[in-house]
Amino acid sequence: xxxxxxxxxxxxxxxxxxxxxxxxxxxxxxxxxxxxxxxxxxxxxxxxxxxxxxxxxxxxxxxxxxxxxxxxxxxxxxxxxxxxxxxxxxxxxxxxxxxxxxxxxxxxxxxxxxxxxxxxxxxxxxxxxxxxxxxxxxxxxxxxxxxxxxxxxxxxxxxxxxxxxxxxxxxxxxxxxxxxxxxxxxxxxxxxxxxxxxxxxxxxxxxxxxxxxxxxxxxxxxxxxxxxxxxxxxxxxxxxxxxxxxxxxxxxxxxxxxxxxxxxxxxxxxxxxxxxxxxxxxxxxxxxxxxxxxxxxxxxxxxxxxxxxxxx
Length: 312
Hints:
Number of domains: 1
Strand content: 15-25%
Number of helices: 13
CATH topology: TIM Barrel
Strand order of the largest sheet: 1-2-3-6-7-10-11-12
CATH superfamily: Aldolase class I
Distance between the termini: 25 Å
Structural class: alpha/beta
CATH architecture: Alpha-Beta Barrel
Order of helices and strands: HEHHEHHEHEEEHEHEEHEHEEHHH
Shape: globular
Number of strands: 12
C-alpha cells in the first residue's frame, strides 16, 4: 500500500492528507436537521449527520488528494452508531480510490496487539472463512510498549501489504514531557528519546519494504521542524506523516526538512483547517453553510498552493 500512496501523491502532485475528524460543531445546521428528522437527537442521528458531512467533503475533494485520515475517537464518541459511520466513511473513501489512514493510535502487546492489527489492517478467521474488519490501508500506532507492540502490526503489514505510522515526535505542546527526555543509548550517549524511537522505526521497517519506502512510517509533527530534519536522516526509508499544519501552528515554510530531495517522503495532514473551512473567516463570506464542501475544496487548493510554493 505504500507504493499506492506514493503513486497517488505523484499522480496528483499532492503530498497532503485530509483528516476526517468531525465534531457536531463543525456540521452545518441543515445536515443536522435532516439527520435528526430521520433518527431524532440520538446517537444514530449524530452518526448519520457525521456520515453525510464526510460524504460531501469526500465528493468535493477526492480528485485533488491522495489520502484521508479519519480519527476514530471522533466516531467512537457516538458509540456503536458512530463506529458504523467510521466504517462507512472508510469504505466510501476506498470506493473513491483514496488511501485510508486509520488514525487509531493503538498500542498493546501479544494477542491484544495482534487483534488490533487484524481488526484494522488484516483479516479474522470465522469458521472456514476470512473476513475483514475496518480494512484501512494504514493505521497509526503508539510505540510505548516497544517491539512487542509493533511486531504484530508489522506481521500483518507484510501479509496484507499495508502499513503503519508510528508515533515518533508528535505535534502537541506537551509531547516533550516524554519524547524530548535525554536517554542513554546503547553506546552510553545521551540523546532525545524521539531519536531512539526513530532508530527503532528504521529497524522495524528494514525488512518490510515497498519499492522505495518501508511499510513502517512515522508521525512527526510540523511544529518541530528542526527535530523533523534530524528524524528525516535517521529514518531515510520511512514515509513521514506530518500533523500540526495550519490550525496547530505548523507553517508550510517549515515543512521542507521532512521531504527527501525527490520531493517525496512526507505527507502533510490538515483536519479542521479543511473540514471546518466553511466556518473560517477566510472562506465564510464566499461559501454559505449549504456549500461547506465547496469551502473544503478551496481550502485543499489553498493548502496545495501553499506547500508547493514553499517546499518545492
